[in-house]
Amino acid sequence: MPDQVGGDPRARTTAGRWRVLGVTDGALLYQVRCLVDDPGWHGPLPNLGHRVFLGRSGASLRRLNGQLTFADATSVLFSRPGDEMHVSHPLGDGDVYTCLELSPELLADRPDAAQWLDRRGWDGSVDERLDLEHRMLVARCARGVDRFEFTERMHRFVGRLLSASPIGAGEPGAEIERAVGRRPATLAAHRRLADRAREVLAGSDFRLGLTEVAEQVGCSPHHLSRVFQRVTGQSLTAYRNRLRVRAVLDVLADDDGQPLGTVAADHGFADQAHLTRVVREQVGHPPARLRRLLTAAEAA
């Protein structure tokens, strides 16, 4: 395996509980649950390979080459060798992410190599179908796969990830740049407000109302709703649903037998029918089937 990929990933990121999920020539997949007592900044973290960070739960702040990004369970971040990254955990420890490290040699052999190798780094959001595929890849690898199967599944996922990524798309916040006339101070303030709202929602139990979220970030509900839509391209309701469906997927993957009615109540849904409807709309399957998909012994 090339020097840029492999070895102990703990040497190049923050403290945490680790689980290596798969290893093949030029690729390493692992899961991290961050264990950080200090919510302040940590780093810079050595970056020895091309890395894809996929959020699973919790939230963090990442500063990649000086650019600040709020990362949560909906986020994806790609970095290259030589990038400088600092990480902070404003909500405390316990956030979970999956990291896929890829060697330049592996990427160079792909038909989409230029998109991976020429981009300095991107961040964005993973849609619900790809998030489910990510979680099923993790679940399958955690149950145990051989090197052949892992390699095939990894390449398939990488291709789908790139096709769904913001590479080549418009930069996040393009709509708000047009709306505020590209005034840097206003644009920066609006992005901070949207990130603060994301932080509040990510750290909540999903029972907060819009008025309560607005109070915590210090503005009116109308202003927050309008700015959030312009900055992120989605409504606060849509973003909140994306977060809580991902939280539900974590619960279903644990398969502790918790009744779906209890899961619904714990995540702020009106009832089990509401939970089922929202989850089905997001990922195309009802919760009961998702529980089987994420925990069954057979291959997905």
Automatic annotation (TrEMBL):
Pfam families attached to this UniProt entry: HTH_18
Taxonomic lineage of the native organism: Bacteria, Bacillati, Actinomycetota, Actinomycetes, Micromonosporales
Domain HTH araC/xylS-type intervals: 191-293
Keywords: DNA-binding, Transcription, Transcription regulation
Coiled coil regions in record: none
InterPro entries hit by this protein: AraC_XylS_family_regulators, Homeodomain-like_sf, HTH_AraC, HTH_AraC-typ_CS
Name this polypeptide is given: AraC-like DNA-binding protein
Organism: Micromonospora purpureochromogenes
